[in-house]
Design a protein that fits this description.
- The complex is a heterodimer.
- Chain A is of the alpha+beta class.
- Among the domains of chain A are: 99 residues, Rossmann fold, CATH 3.40.50.20; 70 residues, Dna Ligase, domain 1, CATH 3.30.1490.20; 120 residues, ATP-grasp fold, B domain (D-amino Acid Aminotransferase, Chain A, domain 1, 2-Layer Sandwich), CATH 3.30.470.20; 48 residues, no CATH class.
- Chain A is built from 17 helices and 24 strands.
- In chain A, strands 6, 10, 11, 12, 13, 14, 15, 16, 21 and 23 form a ten-stranded mixed beta sheet that branches.
- In chain A, helix 3 runs parallel beside helix 4, helix 11 packs antiparallel against helix 12 and helix 16 crosses helix 17.
- By secondary structure, chain B is mainly beta.
- Chain B has two domains: 85 residues, no CATH class; 67 residues, Beta Barrel (OB fold (Dihydrolipoamide Acetyltransferase, E2P)).
- Helices cover 2% and strands 55% of the residues of chain B.
- Chain B is built from one helix and 18 strands.
- Chain B has a ten-stranded antiparallel beta sheet with strand order 8-7-6-5-4-3-2-1-9-10, with no helix packed on it.
- Classes of the chains: A alpha+beta, B mainly beta.
- The interface between A and B is large, with 72 and 73 residues.
Amino acid sequence: MFKKVLIANRGLVAANCVRAVRELGAKSAIVYETSDLGSAAVRAADEALEITSANGSTAYLDVGSVVEAAVRCGADAVHPGYGFLAKSQDLAQRLKERGITLIASQTHPRAKELAQKQGLGILPGTAVLRAWSEVESSVASIGFPLAIKAQASYGGWGARIVNDASELKPAYEHVCKQCERHGVPAEVVLDKHLSNAHQVEFPVLRDSSGRVLVLPEVETSVQRRFQKLLVETPSPSLKAALRGKLESAIPALVNALELVGYASVVFQVSGGEAYFSDVDGSIQAQHGATGLLTSVNIIREQIRVASGEALRIQAEHVQRKGHVIGVFIYAMDPYNKFAACPGRIERFHAPSGEGIILHSAVTSGDIVSPHYDPNVVTLLAHDSTRDEAVTRMRLALADFFIDGIQTSLPIMRAIVDSADFVKGEIGTSYLFSEERRVSLLKSLRNSEDDEIAALVGALALNTDANASQIMASAQHGSLLWAMASRVLNRKKMEF
Amino acid sequence: MKYTVRSVEKHEFELPRKTDFSSEFAVELKGKTIAVRILETNADGSLRLVMINNRVIPVQVDRRTDGLPERVYLNGVSYPIEIEKVESTRFKAPTIAKQASGEVRADLPGQVTSLFVQVGDEVEKGQTIGILEAMKMENEIIAPRNGKIKTITVGVGKAVMRRDLILEIG
């Protein structure tokens, strides 16, 4: 086991990594930018090192700062978490030169080719492209619609769907600009895009001796602009025969890729066929869902394998207990076209109890920074069957109240309530349209609450807060002004 | 006092003639009686937690610049609010509310990555006129009112701080 692991990330994913390192008995160190100084992950780590950025963008993307911090604190491994530098070959290389292990698998340049050799279906696509001329000339072999993705993309940025030739150059330039903002090279991959497919991912662990463990698949179709909103395991849509075929092909694939550690093998499933899409070597946001279902702690096993330990868990011993649903809550306002809502959390009333797990690095009074991603918490619901897990999640979400910032809670409640979700039929394009957003939000309203809202609105007119504001702007002597005046002067009134 | 309030539907009801609502009171609505208690208010006096017919509900009320409530959240679910009448006096929104400012400012620090309009273009309230990239998301810049694009202060590719003026609608 490593002696000391430096976590090069922040927020919830960093808090989970710090916990895993400490549970393994190793020392934990973490890098932080000033605004994260009081955060849960930084408080939990044994050691905290401040980093600053050389250029304008965030220090969490500054390879030099992270490497220097690792050397400075004497870490023998760095866990990059999810996003930021998790896919950085530059970071992997510079750490390797100093004898420090990066706990993340890098993208294999021939993954698609090797997948095809294993008999897996693949979508037409390119290898990594570095220039517009390469992009332009690759399109003919792929066709539209296609997805253009930055190599370093994750969690929603750096990916665009292109529906026809006229959209291609603007989309490419946009993705390149995003790469520049994130301080990563403008390297993209093009793939045929299947509209409204089901996205299914298999978590896989493999050690240096070639022992492979394939864990139950996770359905990750409920997305918005490539940002995962809800996951569940096992998948409600994957047919048994197809599952069997994929599960038996994956070990040979990861052996051919010489994967050491953890990866998520991603498929797009459409029309009864599964198409290999990606091998993502960074820890995925849904690791907690797999952990609840199987009792396998993916981050811990990933760290063990990276330190050279043998994978001791065998597939036969992995239990699948019931069904897990995981919801990611973001600081964005579904009522305002999902606009980002950074700010200070006021009330934070999270559900808890039987079968409910909250992954949160924030609580009331904490600030959601405008400089990082909008992920706030992950809520997991676990029960014996899918129907029961859906009910459990529906009730848990209805009990979850956050204010001070707007969050995606309302739209998540509407999705979990929807007939499409209950039937397990949601595909990757479900949240594509404005119409869908509006109709989902409308579905949360009912006529009884409509009356109550009207009542609360009228009641609000009679509060001090309203009255002061009204008196400041209403015409002197008007009815509104008179009402407000009565409210503010009530102590002086006689009955 | 009689109120006519439109949320999604129109409702008429009567609140007791008093100004101190800190104890339980009854409201008549559509022939039924509703028991109401204000349980908690925020520091500024705005409503925070209410009890309606024995049901506890966290609330949030958004107000227009003139102080009239325009949105109520019941346990996070949003309802539009329009106070149409108090007693027999009708309130018409345009005569009471100041028209929304034509200044379009950045809600949070980020980068303007797209502008879909030019100076002179006509826009409608609610129309998406650009993209502000922040928090790893593309946030839509939305026109606050109808009008014509008067000036564009920040061009595509420029970084903005919170409250920076991006453009003006005249």
